[in-house]
Write a structure and sequence with these properties.
InterPro entries: Polyketide_cyclase/dehydratase, START-like_dom_sf. It comes from Nocardioides koreensis. Pfam families: Polyketide_cyc2 (PF10604). This is SRPBCC family protein. The chain is globular, with a radius of gyration of 16 Å. It has 3 helices and 7 strands; from the N terminus they run βαββββββαα. The longest helix has 25 residues, at about 135-155. Strand 6 (about 95-100) and strand 7 (about 105-115) form a beta hairpin. It has a single domain, classed as 2-Layer Sandwich (Alpha-D-Glucose-1,6-Bisphosphate, Chain A, domain 4). It is α+β, with helices and mostly antiparallel strands. Helices cover about 25% and strands about 35% of the residues. Helix 1 packs across helix 3 (about 135-155). Strands 1-7-6-5-4-3-2 form a 7-stranded antiparallel sheet, with helices on one face.
């Protein structure tokens, strides 16, 4: 799909260092059914089919204050211990977790890309119900930081996998 500069969204990205091996971090972020454990926006995730792999679909129930909305996602990248990415059907965005081994653990990066822009319906609903693009983008970045902090806390509490 072609986009012009008015519909292209910036890359959103947050990174954190974890004192846990990639195998332990991967065990957490690849279990998409647990997304509500980390994301402040996700209330519940329903996964269709197990194990999670490329092509797996899932549904999220999201919340912001009194507002609730569903989203549908499909795993588009599944590289164990390296990267998990999923595309949100309703707004066309691609969310991912990338893992990179470090000397003392793992560098975990969460990204939100919009290679096809963001759907007009989603842009309209964001403007009307969520305070506009900039307000919602700021909330997404804060949520990404919170998500990564929560994954870090859990990964560092777990004993290292052998």
């Amino acid at each position: 799909m072609a986009t012009d500069s008015s519909t292209v969204e910036p890359l959103l990205e947050e990174t954190i260092e974890l004192e846990a091996p990639p195998v332990a971090v991967w065990a957490l972020v690849s279990d998409v059914a647990r997304m509500s454990s980390w994301s402040p926006q996700v209330v519940k995730t329903f996964v269709r089919g197990r194990p999670v792999q490329e092509g797996t679909t899932f549904f999220n129930l999201n919340r912001r204050g009194p507002l609730f909305w569903p989203t549908q996602a499909r795993v588009v990248t599944f590289e164990p211990h390296r990267e998990l990415a999923f595309r949100i059907k309703e707004n066309w965005t691609v969310w991912s977790f990338s893992l990179e081994p470090t000397g003392s653990g793992t560098r975990l990066t969460q990204r939100r890309r919009a290679p096809e822009g963001i759907s007009g319906v989603s842009r309209g609903l964001t403007r009307i119900a969520l305070g506009g693009q900039q307000v919602f983008t700021d909330e997404l970045l804060a949520g990404m930081r919170q998500t990564l902090e929560r994954v870090k806390a859990e990964a560092e509490r777990r004993p290292a996998a052998s």
